[in-house]
Amino acid sequence: MSTDTDTPHTEIFDSLPYYDDDLQKFPYLKEKVEQELARELKAPQTLHPRVPPTVELFADNPFLKAELERVGSNQAFTPLDSLRYSLPAPTSTPATDEDWKVALDNAHAQLQHQRIRQQNLALLQNYGPNAFRIQNYLLEATVKQTEKTLEELKDLIVEVNRERKNTQDRIGKQLTTLENRWTELISSVLQIEMANVALDAEIERLNKKEADLAEL
Fold this sequence. Notes:
It comes from Pholiota conissans. The protein has 216 residues and is an all-alpha fold.
């Protein structure tokens, strides 16, 4: 286990997956790990310290935020109100002057709306193609930059994993050497203890023999 102390007051523990292969060597250990994981009551409520905070989309635009929530919840789009684009005649018979005035005002509003639409279409026809070309150029540049950044991040991930593997392989060899040395020292200590026990038994036997000879 290694401890990352780059973040103050936070300890991050990392395993050595390129070196620790006990789960592959001993299947029963893997079963015990799975049993321990199955006994977990709940997932941790806090994210990893290095996970960036959640980005809130359209925080400054409530309309787009509400539309995003609508799409996320699979709600149907609110149908457009087409009543205001119609030209209803007065419903009362006979119609009063006020009814005809309301209908006439609505007709004037519809006429002005159609004029504005014609102006917008004319402006779009004159300036729209170039605006779309510029927008497409900017989007393509953004896509290329994003793809380039993505490739750089992938290369960085590969490099980090390669460096991590090399480091763990190097440290793993040192750990294996130290473990073998520790095993040898433990074995030597056990052999010395067994030799001491044998010597104690031999000394006790000789002392007993000496005592027996002294009695004779």
